[in-house]
Amino acid sequence: MVVNLDMSKPPIAAQNILTQFGTNIIHENLSFEVSRSEIVGLVGGSGAGKSVLLNTLLGLKEPEGGQVLYFGHDRDKLSADQRRLINNEMGVLFQGGALFSSLTVRENIMVPLREHTKLPLKLMRELADMKINMVGLPANSATLYPSDLSGGMKKRAGLARSLALDPTLLFLDEPTAGLDPIGASAFDQLILGLREALDLTVLMITHDLDSLFTICDRVAVLVDKQIAIADSLPNVLEFDHDWVREYFGGPRARAALLNKA
Amino acid sequence: MMNLEQSQTIQSQTLQSPAFDVDVDGDVLRVNAKGHWTLQQIGEVYEPFSKAVEGQTFRHVDFDFKDLTGLDTAGAFVLASAIKNPDQANSDWSILSGSKGRETLMQVAADATVGTPPLKHRMWFDAFERLGKSTVRFCTETVDTLAFLGRFTTVLVRQLLNPRQIRWKSIVALIEDVGLNAAPIIMVLSFFIGAVIAFMGSNLLASFGAQIFMVDLVGFSVLREFAVLITAIMLAGRSDSAFTAQIGAMKMRQEVDAMQVIGLDRYETLVVPRAIACLVSAPILTFAAMMSGLAGGMIVAWFGPTDISPILFFARLREAIPITNFWVGMVKAPFFALIIAVVGCRQGLAVTGSVESLGSRTTTSVVQAIFSVIVMDAIFAMLFLEMGI
After folding, report:
1. pLDDT digits (tens, 9 = 90+) for B63-104
2. In this structure, is residue B218 part of a structural domain?
3. N- to C-terminal Cα distance for chain A?
4. What is the pLDDT of residues B153-185, one digit of tens each?
5. Contacting residues of B for A161, CB less than 8 Å apart
């Protein structure tokens, strides 16, 4: 049961992905990769297949063609045990937090710990509390149930759960959607801080132009069934494509850009 | 997390176990951590490390990470427990020979505060507390049900007086679901119940040479009790649970709130159509159940050891069972239907945000519905006894 995690290889890469539902082709010849320790923002119009791509990268959906590589390993060639080990290196924050509603926040964070480690219960509890602290939730939220939390707190709790096993690779699905600007920028800073402390590699789907401008090292644009460009923001802004120009040339984008400058 | 070397092999068994040396030099505690201080292995050193640090007096901690091969938040957390003093401020600390990443990690761990675990002490009077709570819950539940019933009745009467307001479309769709789709299973069940009664009766009565009375037995029991009870219990299991789950899911997804804001009355749109659908379906289903129950009895009588022909069966039925028995059964159907609709809708509307409450409300709903149906049936039995029917 050995996996060689070659840290010089990209933690996640997609090669020539083909996704289709019936005759409706969502992705065709889609390739891109996320390098170690970078934060990549994935943008694309509604219905362009961002969430489908995320599911494909996570292994929740098998693509109709092409490969997904984790640390240079073809996912299809990994044994079940190897898959499990690599899965522990990945954390996901789903859009609504996807917290288990019958468990408290602390218990939610303890779920992956209970499942994949053999730690004493007291230590697990303390580690869960530490994660709660790390994502900036008050200590008393440990015993609250998800239904008692606000939207922003749910996202933070979801993030704490995704960090439970100290993943190398973190997927975020619209982390700042539905948060007020203060909460959203605090969340952005949180991601930056965690990246520094935990040396995370982050792939985030986002529509939040402020997040794209502030924290993303690269922006990948999903348009016309492919990743048209995945590059640093100035280069993406220069990119010659109608949709990209409209996306980054709109009044909101200009405001965000001004803000940054 | 593997934030160090170029290449890293994860292997669950053969990773280098974490180890440590602790020694105190004046005010300084020197911690020499070796091996892999990560989540999978940290359980091995957690307690030994806490014990080694406990009881030592020091002001400053030096962490030596020279021989450390791996560190993640769990490892950092355990190491940082050395600098946390329960009563006073944290000790100073520094890292000898460690990377920047590890320092940040240790800083995060040092800053983390651990919430106190919830206190759980059991007391001898806990049982009384639970008893009190469940009594209060029972009372509020009763009051709420009565309030719901009152509100429902006013809306129902208002709608019946003004039939234009009634939502016929949704009622028809519900009748299909509650009535038509339930008919096969209810008829099959009732057929078998009728057959079983006939079979038991014929065996028992044959010892007196009074086989013909099995017709009375089947007729009485199916018409008066079984047909309507089977119908009600099946409706409780099938439709009542569906009502609770549907309305509960709508409640969870804020659809009910949206309806209220738009100005749709939840009783008018959700409860009354379901109640009317049940009121219409239950008597029809009961009638179908009676017929198939009698058919079951008749088949056993005909082909079984008693050899009573259908002609004889019906002749005896007409002679022995007055029509009142049929009405006794039928008259109960609408009452049971109302109980089922009201309980199902009320429990559905009582669902709160969590998945757990949806589950428990659905359970409660079915249990309450069947319980109330049987209690109601007993009340009817006493009434009819007093009235001599």
Report:
1. 888 888 888 888 888 888 888 766 666 778 888 777 777 787
2. yes
3. 50
4. 999 999 889 888 888 999 999 999 999 999 999
5. none
Domain holding B47, by residue range, is 15-114
CA distance B125 to B102: 51
* B263 occurs within a structural domain: yes
* Residue B277 near residue B174 (C-beta atoms within 8 A): yes
Do B79 and B200 belong together in one domain? no
Give yes or no: residues B287 and B381 share one domain.
Answer: yes
Report the alpha-carbon distance of residue B56 to residue B252 in Å, rounded. 54
* Single-letter residue type at A13: A
Where chain A has pLDDT below 70, the residues are 1-4, 260-261
Summarize pLDDT for B308-356 with one digit per residue, the tens. 899 999 999 999 999 999 999 999 999 999 999 999 999 999 998 778 8
Q: How does DSSP assign B101-141, residue by residue?
A: HHHHHHHHHHH---PPPPP----TTHHHHHHHHHHHHHHHH
Residue B368: left (phi > 0), alpha (psi -120 to 50), or beta? alpha
| The pLDDT value given to residue B117 | 56
- Total structural domains in chain B? 2
- Tell me the backbone φ, ψ of residue A79, rounded to 5 degrees: -80, 165
* Among candidate residues A99, A208, A102, A207, the one with its CA nearest the CA of residue A150: A99
Q: Which of A101, A123, A168 sits opposite B1 (nearest CB)?
A: A168
ipTM tops the 0.85 cut? no
Judgement on whether residues B338 and B298 belong to the same structural domain of the protein: yes
Residues 6 or more apart whose Cβ sits within 8 Å of residue B58:
B24, B27, B28, B29, B91
Domain assignment of residue B209, yes or no: yes
User: Could you tell me the pTM of the whole model?
Assistant: 0.69
Say if residues A214 and A181 touch (Cβ distance below 8 Å): no
Interface of B with A (CB under 8 A): 1-3, 5-13, 38-40, 42-43, 46-47, 72-74, 77-78, 101, 104-105, 107-109, 111-115, 117-118, 352-356
- DSSP three-state, residue B22: strand
Looking at A147-180, list the stretches that DSSP marks H as alpha helix, in order from N- to C-terminal side: 151-162
Residues B348, B244, single domain; the answer is yes
Question: Hey, what amino acid is at A220?
Answer: A
Q: Is A121 on the interface with B (CB under 8 A)?
A: no
CA dist A21 and B355 (Å) reads 31
CA distance B7 to chain A (A): 5
Do the beta carbons of residue A93 and residue A131 sit within 8 Å?
A: no
Rounded to whole angstroms, how far apart are CA atoms A118 and B377? 55
Give the C-alpha distances (Å, rounded to integers) separating B206 from B60, B147, B172, B211, B221: 97, 53, 48, 5, 19
Query: Which of B114, B129, B162 is the last residue in one of the domains?
Result: B114
Q: Which two tokens stand for residue B373?
A: 């149906």
pLDDT, residue B120, reads 66
| A24 at interface of B, judged by CB pairs closer than 8 A | no
**Percent of chain B residues past pLDDT 70, beyond the cut:** 92
**pLDDT of B207 above 90:** no
B27 shares its domain with B102: yes
Interatomic CA distance for residues B291 and B295, integer angstroms? 6
Answer yes or no: do B158 and B240 share one domain. Answer: yes
Chain-chain contact of B9 with A147 (C-beta, under 8 angstroms) = no
Contacts of A130 (CB under 8 A, 6+ apart): B73, B77, B109, B112, B114
Same domain? For B163 and B304 the reply is yes
- Sign of the Cα torsion B65, B70, B73, B77 reads negative
| Shared-domain flag, residues B288 and B372 | yes
